[in-house]
Write a structure and sequence with these properties.
The chain is mainly α. The protein is 77% helix and 0% strand. The chain is built from 21 helices and no strands. The radius of gyration is 22 Å and the shape is globular. The model has no long low-confidence stretch (mean pLDDT 84).
Length: 429
Amino acid sequence: MASETIGALGLGALLILMVLRVPVALTMLIVGVVGFAQVISWDAAISQLKTIPVEVLSNYSFSAVPMFILMGVLAAHSGMAGKLFQATRVICGGWKGGLAIAAVGSCGVFSAISGSSLATASTMTRVALPEMERYGYNRGLATGALAAGGTLGIMIPPSIALLIYAVLTEQSVGDMFMAGLVPGLMGLVMYSLTVTVVMRLRPSLAVAGEPTSWREKLASMSGLVPFFAVFLLMILGIYFGIFTPTEGASVGAFATLLYALAKGLRGRELWQAIQETLALSTVVFFMLVGADALGYFISVSRISFSISDFLYGMDLAPIVVVLCILLMYFVLGMFMDAIAMLVITVPVVFPIIQSLGIDPVWFGIVTVLTVELGLITPPVGMNVFVIKAMAPHVGLGEIFRGVAPFIVSDFVRLAVLIAFPVLTSLFLL
């Protein structure tokens, strides 16, 4: 049997196992090892099974993953998230829909040190949703704003998704972070504008918050200081070459730890934060091990090269190929976790992108943005289900209806980035 045929069968088996709800990491590992054995030999496959975990766990760049996770967990456990929302609530005081805008803004700032969309969504829902419900906000609008705001965590640096894409494609992590800065800030601004437009069209969904004076707004900004201090410490350090992105993650985690200790995080709470970090990091690393095994199989089966040759034969323009790939990501995002999508598909599509001469950094940004869309689109928007778990009294239908305007906003942002690729290179080193 030809290696390309084995590769196609392997990808088919991958989809079947995922439909059967086999864990994604285990699915990739099984298909990768068995497929490699069919193309090369079982001895070689067993040998890889011994070496791949060591390769992944000893990869210096991946050591930033648990550091970013630890930053988000410590920020949640130390009360930083609560102070953040109170600060943005006061700043937006008196605005129509101000609490929803404050929730989006809080998600954007929190994601600047969290790196995880799911962590951002769950933390800010716990903090902001009760306040919005107390002021009589429509539950769909409130949860929709939080679900959409949570997706900012996948784009605003530091981002675990951008880090993983960079390592899988051998791009500069610093370049990916800087390229994600403008699209991430665009998302924050456009989500806030979306709330404003919704308020114009349907003013009954929310009420104006309590007016606050300029003195109160300025005083409340103290709640933003810890986040911006950690964020600027990392980003400026990376931008000016003071330390690498991996070292920056460690610096940020240490700074957040110092803040948490200063605020009295001790004993059981500190141990819980460490356990949560270890659990989340284990899930990510297991997926990376599976992705590495799958990547070797795809490489030796040459299935990606066959797809490239097929696309060349169709004589499609590079932008059309990119749009087809993004459409695939959008469809997959309705059913799969964002990180799982990246680690499964990037080894397949990236050789195609390289062969077409497309800028890999720009492609990474639009890919991650499309993956981000999958976090809030039915039927399996991961952020929506996280918020549903945090607020079981709100129906899934309500959340999906509330998040619909933000999906439209994301499509507009994606179109702008495709039309103007220069927006992803404004801060490149």
